[in-house]
Amino acid sequence: MSGADAYICGKFRKTIPSVKTIMTPIVSVEKLTKTYGNGFEALKGVDLAIEQGEILALLGPNGAGKTTLISIVCGIVNPSSGKVLVGGHDVVKDFRATRSLIGLVPQELTTDMFETVWNTVSFSRGVYGYKPNPALIEKVLKDLSLWSKKDNMLRELSGGMKRRVMIAKALSHEPKVLFLDEPTAGVDVNLRREMWQVVRDLRNTGVTVILTTHYIEEAEEIADRVGVINGGKLLLLEEKTALMKKLGRKQLRLELTEPLKAVPTSLAVYDLTLAADGLSLLHEYRDGEGQDTIASLLAGLAAENIHFRDLSTRQSSLEDIFVELVGEKA
């Protein structure tokens, strides 16, 4: 039973092994470049392998190359050089085959505002040459909480509901790969979390989901792997938990009992940061590096007769890592 069949028969029922057991990438990008007519290099030799059934979050500032990359994989923009395969098919030479495997939810809400939800989603399936399948369309709308709105015109819906319709359109032809370009932009927090669950459920059927996002919490919450793009280059591609462990930092904060005018030279080795009011000291360290150093630091503070009333630690977030990478590589 394929992932698509599972979607028709049951609500996002898992039918494939875990991501790590699948070796052949569903999307393969090799030495991909894109230079526009004005000389702007949007992509500079990007290599990327995306496995079936995973959620990949692509992070990067505006103009980093995220949308250009998606547009090339989806066959909307032609590359300057390099190769892209989707399901083993070349996106340039086998456009029809690759496009039938892909669903795309663009950042812009582009659809007929005077058409009903049902007709809009049903028409999208027909565009790909598939026969009508009312049962599938009903299932998609119900799973996206759109069934009660099926007879409403698009102009009557909220921004969040319109974005759900865009996802329904992209799922209407049962794609194996789904691209979501800023999927929760303009969506309130509650709807955003509901849509995260929709994405997880899709992944569980074997659908590969690639999303671009400005919400770092989105990548932290649902992604299996994280890619960071800046200046047309893929700076890193890493499993999320491994990335947090490898690049994440911890911060020790010491609240002092009395203000300190300056950090004593005897403590300079710890690279401490003194707050402007002199009442707190900050020390950053990486996982596995901290225990002996912190014990030594506390002994050094005692030797300098510096006392603290409280201490706390904070684990760096994916946002901290992102800012650090982009700042260094921009």
UniProtKB/TrEMBL annotation:
Coiled coil: none annotated. Pfam families: ABC_tran (PF00005). GO terms for molecular function: ATP binding; ATP hydrolysis activity. Residues 27-256 form the ABC transporter domain. The keyword Nucleotide-binding applies. Belongs to the ABC transporter superfamily. This is ABC-2 type transport system ATP-binding protein.
